[in-house]
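Quick one, tokens below:
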């Protein structure tokens, strides 16, 4: 890792390219820079999340809401189909404004993830331990499915954080080229320190047998705000026994919608980093901030 003095010199150079990057630069401050991969913070159970940021959070980053059509539902038992479509996953963020700071007062204060279900006509974050008190009243099978979904969310990783950036990896089973694959959704959240605007970018990574990450040849996207991704679930019949699906049976059928962007060469070369330094995190900031308003191809999911 480079020393802070050298990092500051590089930050000053970047100032000539992007006048406000320096404010977002992680200057080795222990309270704003975290380069150690760790589990994501979880959203408080009972939080209601529909199609806008919930109370206590400034941004709904993405809400992944599954649906299961009749053709796919017929491949599993009715109870399994109902459970598969009943849970959603979500990421939220909070951008904080320091009213004592002049010029560039905004920073990314917190990012969190959770799993939820419908309770009393409201989409609500739950855990296996809190679902009964919150009114979900799930049966034993549903509690087991919820517990497994919780474990999956807990495996989502905050790879690196700076005062205006967060890099997150979310393990997701998705259908690519007609096949189910376990991949990482790499979400990069960035905040403009002048305006408080938050923009999220997404691409996919694959881990090989040696544990090395590689970029998946799929779209590099800038996601819309308050994204509710209502995606079809696809059933792999080889992972279903007498109507009972195993943990590998369901996959996300479409990727989140967003503006497809060309890869900046410098970012593409570093897209599959497993760990960050102050220099590589700053590279992500520099390259992605430059794409805040670049027109992209509006592709259907």
């Amino acid at each position: 890792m480079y020393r802070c003095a050298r990092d500051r010199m590089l930050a000053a150079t970047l100032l000539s390219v992007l006048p406000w990057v320096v404010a977002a630069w992680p200057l080795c401050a222990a309270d704003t820079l975290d380069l150690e991969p760790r589990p994501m913070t979880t959203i408080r159970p009972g939080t209601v999340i529909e199609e806008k940021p919930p109370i206590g959070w400034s941004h709904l980053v993405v809400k992944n809401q599954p649906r299961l059509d009749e053709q796919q539902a017929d491949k599993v038992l009715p109870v399994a189909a109902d459970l598969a479509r009943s849970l959603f996953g979500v990421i939220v963020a909070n951008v904080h404004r320091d009213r004592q700071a002049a010029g560039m007062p905004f920073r990314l204060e917190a990012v969190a993830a959770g799993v939820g279900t419908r309770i009393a006509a409201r989409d609500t974050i739950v855990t296996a331990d809190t679902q009964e008190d919150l009114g979900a009243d799930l049966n034993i099978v549903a509690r087991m499915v919820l517990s497994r979904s919780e474990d999956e969310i807990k495996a989502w990783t905050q790879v690196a954080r700076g005062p205006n950036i967060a890099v997150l990896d979310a393990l997701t089973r998705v259908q690519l080229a007609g096949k189910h694959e376990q991949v990482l959704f790499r979400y990069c959240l960035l905040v403009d320190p002048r305006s408080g605007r938050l923009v999220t970018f997404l691409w996919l990574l694959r881990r090989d047998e040696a544990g090395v990450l590689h970029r998946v040849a799929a779209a590099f996207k800038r996601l819309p705000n308050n994204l509710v991704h209502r995606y079809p679930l696809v059933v792999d019949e080889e992972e279903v026994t007498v109507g009972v699906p195993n943990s590998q049976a369901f996959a996300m059928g479409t990727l989140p919608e967003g503006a497809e962007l060309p890869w900046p060469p410098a970012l593409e070369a570093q897209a599959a980093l497993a760990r960050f330094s102050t220099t590589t995190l700053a590279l992500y900031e520099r390259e992605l901030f430059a794409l805040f308003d670049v027109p992209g191809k509006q592709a259907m999911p």
